Structures are given as C-alpha cells and as structure tokens.
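Ticket closed. Logging final result for FIST N-terminal domain-containing protein.
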Amino acid sequence: MNVSQYHYRDGQWFPALPANDSSQLLLAFGSRQIIKFPFISQQIKNAFSHAQLIGCTTSGEISSTEVYDNSLVLTAVNLANTPIQVINTNINHHQSSFEAGLTLAKELPASLHEDVLRYALVISDGQLVNGTELVSGINEALPRDVLVTGGLAGDAERFSKTVVWHNEQCASGMIVVCGFYGNALRVGHGTLGGWSAFGPNRIITRSKGNILYELDGQPALDLYKNYLGDYSAELPSSALRFPLSLQLAEESESVVRTILSINEDDKSMVFAGDMPEGASAKLMKASNNSLIDGASIAAVGAVEKLQSAEARLALLISCVGRRLVLNQRTYEELEAVNDVTSDDCVKCGFYSYGEISPLLKGNHCRLHNQTMTITTFSEIVDA
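Final structure:
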C-alpha cells in the first residue's frame, strides 16, 4: 500500500498533482465548491485516471495534525493486492434510511475475483439521513465478520446542506460504500469520546425515530434549555457542547447523541441517530484534556488491532462538537493521534455530523456522535 496526499488551498495544489498516477482510490474531503469547479475536477481526473473518487463536505478537513476550512484534502491510495468496489445510492430513492443501508449492503458483492469482502467504508449525507437506521440496515445484510466504519458529512456549524460525491456524482442525500476485498488487507479501528455525564437520568417518554419530543413527560427542548442557560440563545450550534448520553435497557454501554436541529413550535429536537422511547438519557460535558485523551486512546486501539502490521493510512473522523469545545486546541487531538501512529502513516479525514464504528471492544458497527473515530489500514503484499 502506497499513500500520497495533496492539498488544494489558496488557489493551488500542495504539492503539485502527479501525472497519471495509478492509485485505485481517492479520498477527497472538503469544499463542494472546489471539487465541482470544472478546472479542478479535470485536474484530478488527469492525475488519477484509474481511481474511484469518494468524499464529502466537512466541518473541517484533516491533513496530518492540521485542520482546515474551505479547502480540499485529496488522499491517493494505491493498493497492491486489495480489490475495491464502490457503490452509491441517494436517500431520496428510498422510503427510509434503513432501506437505503439494507439495499447498499445487499448490492455490495460478497467477493471479487475470489477475494472475500473484508471491510466497508461508509460516507453518508449528514442532514437527510438517519444514521442509526442507515447503520442498522447495513448490519442487517452484511456478514458479522465484515468491519464497517465511516462517517456522516458535515457543513461547518451551519447545519444547512451536506454533500457526498462519487466520481462525477455530487449531491445531497447521497450515501457511498467502498468495499475492500482479500486477505492482504489489515484494518484496525478505535473510537472514544472523552465526555462525562452529569445531572439526573431522564427517561425518553415520547419520540419518533431521531426526533425527541419528551423527557420524563416534559417538552424536551424546554428541559434542555433549562440546563443550557445562556447557551440556549445559540441553539442549535451550542448543543454540540452538551450532547446526550443514551443508554438502552438491553445494552451495557451507552452511546452519545448530538442535536442537528430544534423545533420551537412543538419543542422537539432532531438528533443524528435514533432516540428510542424507554431509553435513559443524560446531559454530557467535556474538558479539553478529556477529549484529547479520548483521541489518544482511540488511536491506541486502532493501531493495536492491526496486530503488529504498520499502519500506512489512518482515517480520522471526529465530531464537529469536539472541534467547537477544543477550539484553538483542536490540533492537540490530532497530535495525540500522530504520537501513537508512525511517521510513515498518512493521516486524513474530516470533522463530521456523526461517526460510524464498532465500540473499542466490539465488532458490531454503531453510530456515534462526539467521538474521535480512527480507522487504520495496512496491506500484506505476499498474503
């Protein structure tokens, strides 16, 4: 596996794009205006004529230990012995996000040229897609031993429009899945938040999918505003600083849910994932140090799961809420990951509206919010 990275900012590429590179996969995270500009898209096609291009808009694009806005980070992956297959759909073609995930997983071939599917990377619209349902649909159809990670596109702090792309297609509502095949591939994963719960447990007494109406029989938005105090005037963006910890009765571990939008008329809140009735919820908060430590622990887990193989690529997907809390210290969570990985490991990724990964000690894919999710890649050429 050979990985190279190129960054378009301030009107030029750093470094210059190569001439007819043979990489099979391009990960492109950043501005939809840049990638749709005909001159730029033609430059990318000329440089990487054999590659499948996938990516999305962001709430900050990651390159090494830096985070940028309104740029385009392009990471070229040349796989020696790992076939890939990319498919996409649009949520507007399906009755639900679950159906979209199920359809994608069923359409992804179980094998290519006798190489078995080992890993699936999912990049989804972050506004129109219910991430919990999407992941449930994917889990329903894929074999349990296929690792799934990825994330939901971002739109800075605007929460207005997210866009996903696959080659020439570029649209809101799009979901892209890239399957990786064969025994040569090694993939590790790690995800952790660093948030801590506070206040009383509240029971979700009325909800529908990812829309929360009532906690303990009270209007959810009113109750939430009481906790936020002065921050309530800045909703919905200020809610990224105070996500909810969601605990299902049948599960031992909780997940974090973040708010996408609010409705003042019916006092409801829309979350990035489902908020099932009967589950308990708690407000959460974090310190800068706890978030940075969480990123470091996630990186350790992702590297350890490679089982001594050296990571050549690390895909970092971190929640926009973490960036808001960390502010000028955002680079420190990226440096924490860099300290764990080798100097030869290329780091790319984006700040998102949701992260897709198993828990640190699990294999079953989940939707997360407010986490740093890291996927590491290596390839054994003689496998």
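The first strand starts at residue 2 and ends at 9. No further action required.
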